[in-house]
Each structure stands twice: as C-alpha cells, then as structure tokens.
Amino acid sequence: MLLSVQMPLLLDLTVVLGVSILVIIVLHYLKLPTIIGFLISGVIVGPHGFSLIKADHDVEMLAEIGVILLLFSIGIEFSLGKLMKIWKAVFFGGSIQVFLTIAVFTALAYYYSYDYLPIAIFIGYLFALSSTAIVLKLMQITGEVGTAYGQIILAILIFQDIAVVPMMLSIPILIGSTENLGADLFDLGWKLALVLLFLVVATKFIVPRIFKLVVKTKSKELFITFTLVMCFAIGAITSVAGLSLALGAFLAGLIISESKYSHEAAGYILPFKEIFTSIFFISVGMLLDLSFLMEQWVEILILTAIVLVVKALIGGLAAGILGVPFKTILMVAFAVCQVGEFSLVLAKQGMDMGILPIEVYQYFLAVAIITMILTPILLKYSRAITNFILLKTPLPESWRKKLIANNSKALALLAGEEKKYNDHLVIVGFGIVGRRLAEGAKQTGLQYVIVESSAQVALDDKDHHVVYGDASNTEVLEYVNIKKARVVALTGVDLEQNKLVVQKIRGENKDILIVGRTQLQEETEELIKAGADEVIADEYETSFEILMLTMEEYRLDKSSIVRLMHRV
Length: 568
Prior knowledge:
Layout: H1 2-6, H2 8-29, H3 34-45, H4 56-77, H5 80-85, H6 87-112, H7 117-128, H8 132-142, H9 148-175, H10 181-216, H11 220-240, H12 245-257, H13 262-285, H14 290-295, H15 297-321, H16 326-335, H17 341-352, H18 358-380, H19 382-391, H20 397-404, E1 425-428, H21 432-444, E2 448-452, H22 455-460, E3 466-468, H23 474-479, E4 487-490, H24 495-508, E5 513-518, H25 524-530, E6 534-537, H26 538-553, H27 558-567
Parallel strand pairs: 1-2, 1-4, 2-3, 4-5, 5-6
Helix pairs in contact: 2-3, 3-13, 3-18, 4-8, 4-12, 4-13, 6-7, 6-9, 6-15, 7-9, 7-17, 9-16, 9-17, 10-11, 10-12, 11-12, 15-16, 15-18, 16-19, 17-18, 26-27
C-alpha cells in the first residue's frame, strides 16, 4: 500500500514490463518480433484493456525519452557526411512521399466523408507520416540502415520528421485562428538558422574539445553524463526553436558521430535506449480502445487495408523516381506504409484545437496502431515477399528481367573494365568476413570477384573488384560468370537471403562449391537443404575459439587441445 501511494510510477513500470515479458515469451515461440509484444502489452495494461496502471502520464513521458534516445542513437550511427550524400533522397524522395500522400488522403477524406476542406487536409497530414521509431528500430536490429534501400527509407523518414513542424504551424491557419502568419514564419526561420549555425560550430569546435577533456578524466560516469546531456540539451534547443525534441536528438547524434568517440558513446547509450524505447511501444498500445475496435472492426479493417496499400504505392513511387532498382522500390514501400508516432501527437493536438472530431480520432487511432503492429511482420517478411513477386508471379519473362535488373550504376564494375573470370572465387557480401577472405585471395593470387548489395560500401572500396548488386539477381550472377566459378562464399548471416542466393546459384551451376555462413548452429541444416555444401555457424566457431583460449591458459599442450576439441 505504501509503495502504491509513494511510488506509483515504479509500481506501474513493474506491471507494464512484467506483462511484456510474458507476452514476448509467448510471441518468441510464434517467431514474431518483440515490438509486437510491447504493443500488445500496452493494449492489455492500458485504460481500454485491464487498466492495470495509474500513472499513464508519467509512462508517456518515459516513452518520449525512448523516442529521443532512439533518434539520438541513429544520428550517432549515421554522420553529417552520409546525410549530405543522401540530401537528394531526403528532399526529393521525402517531399514526393509527403506531399503526394497528403494530396491523396485529402481527396479521399473530402470525397467520402467530409466536404469541409480543412478537416480533409488535416487527415491528409495524419496519414503522410510513417513510424520513424518502429522502422529504424527494426532496421537497427537487422543491420539494414546502411543498405541502399535503408538509406532511402531513412531519407524519407528524416523529411517526414522535418515536415511535422510546418504541419503543426499550419493548424491555426486551417481553423482560421492565426493572427500574424508572416511574423510566425519569420520567427521560426531565424530560430532554425541559429540551430543550424550552432550545429556547425558545435561539430567543428565545441564538442571535440569537450570530449577530449572528458576522456582525459578516464571517468566512465562523466562520459555517459556528458553524452546524455548533449542529447537532451540539443533536443531542448530545437524544441525552443519550434522543432521536435526527437529531431534535435538526431542532430545531437550527428554531431557526436563526427568525433572519434562515437562508437563508445553509442555503446553506453544502448542500454538506456532499449528500455525506454520498449516503454514507448507499450505506450502506443495503451491508446487502442478495444471496445471501439470490436464495434467498428469491419470499417477499421477496410480503412487499414486502404492505408497500407495507398501508402505503399506512394512510398514505392517516391523511391522509383530516385532511379533505384525495382527490388529496392518494393522494400521501401513495405517500410513506409504504416502510420507514425508523430501522427499520434499531431492527432491529439488537432483534437484539442477542435479540428479533428472525436469519432475520426478513434478511427485514426485504431488504424494507426494496427498498421504499427503489422509493420514488424511486413518488414520481417518483406524480402521473401519481394522475391516471390519478382520470381514466382506469372509475369512475362521480358517484364521480369526489366524489373529484376539493376540500373547501369548498379552493375558498374568499380575496379576498371569488365574481366572474363574463369575458375574463380565469388565472395557474396563485403563485411568483415568478406574483406578478410578477399585479402586472403588477393595475397595468394587467386582470381576473385565480390558482390555487395550496399551501394555505399561498394563505391567506397577501391582496392578490390566489387560489383554492386543482389547475388540472387540472375543478371548479376551472369555478370560475375557464375557458371565458370569454382567456389562461392556467402559471408552474411541473413538465412532467408542466403537460401535464395544458394538456390539461384545452384540453378546456374550444379558443380560449384557453395560455402555458407549462419548465425545459429540450428540454421545450418536449412542452408544445406537449400543446396549449400558447407555451412559454418558463428556461435559454433566462437565456442571452439573460447574453448581453445581457455585450455591454453591452463597450459594444456596443443595436441591435447586438438584431441579435446575433436571429442567435443
């Protein structure tokens, strides 16, 4: 009783996280992402579920910290240099996606429900935004932020976060309550200019010097404190300027990314980020009104389907205009088809200001949260769905080749003129394992070629023969002369992608030796069934390395260690 009176937030967090643990354990056996577990947990404990928590406002505050830390960590992993390289994707791809989505949903809302244009435009605003938190969280887990389609998705999401500001500023215009629009815009403009100036000065002069002083103290606590202060301080500055806290946190991450301490900072922030982002997803689930959902489930499901399809088509169109391959277009479409967390903030503001009717607000909440729940599933299976569309659907073969083919830039050889390979090694993936294998092949004089799906990684390397493309693409395999190759080494751990690549290669060359890699020992059998000859599991090799090092410390001779490893 004393605990519930004095520390309601602590009790609520215990209940919330306890329920989420049970839900996620169940979903683990169903092989569903943990984010869905947090969303479902929010529905269970929320005011429309079993009302298990009382301090819901405090939980919302912790959730906002989660979004801030998520964007901060994304900024650290990115960099100002990378952001400048994708500025075209940010402003062209992002603007096309946002403005076209607003136009389409405004037209739909105006025609089918409301002949009052301000409400229709505001509904267009709500559906123009996607979930930065969910999409980037999932892409962080799978390591896809740095891929070609990952950077386009990030570019579109960055523009959406920027677009939130003018959307909020325009609400008074829509309801006719603004007094001096010009003054408001001028005020925002000079504040933005100051923020950008501060960003440049802090990156070049202030942060590196302070970091140097902090590191000299060799105090882990001081390092963590300074990193968090950077995150929240710049978030507060952008908030004062009229931008969102989350966007400020992203900018803070960009500033730190330019320092040599960025990896250490990211490592320290990770535990904080994980717990607070988990609370964010729970808080989103708490908004769903189950009784309203049960009463209007047919209309809500129809609206959800319309939102997913329309947003996917527009997102794919925005990516297509940037000139990327069709496979990338489909991956982007799956990633941006949900409704975003900033839409929830915008909707609440619209309802408070009287522009959004309460019934529309409930429909919107239900649709938004359902699309968020479906997003982890769509992203998890997006690669498999994309490959099915490209390879299994009854398309004319000429169409299929055009859709699968990479553009001229994608097939550009980055180490000079095309070479006619024979009896060579094909390395799929150019991460740490791929680079070491390539260096070994180069040192021993073996003929080799590398296939890498990340444009940036491929373009940055000048020491090896790298082809940018997807190894499951028939034209890419023809380009590296797969029929004459002796060995293929799959250096990535994406099981589904590796299975697809193995099947494609085996169809082209039945005698080639295919060496694969998986993360878990239990996955090796699946890759062998797909057609691989030898498969190495990371956890298996790591266990033997640790065993060997441990036995060496106990002074066992090498022959005894070898016999022990054979017995194990």
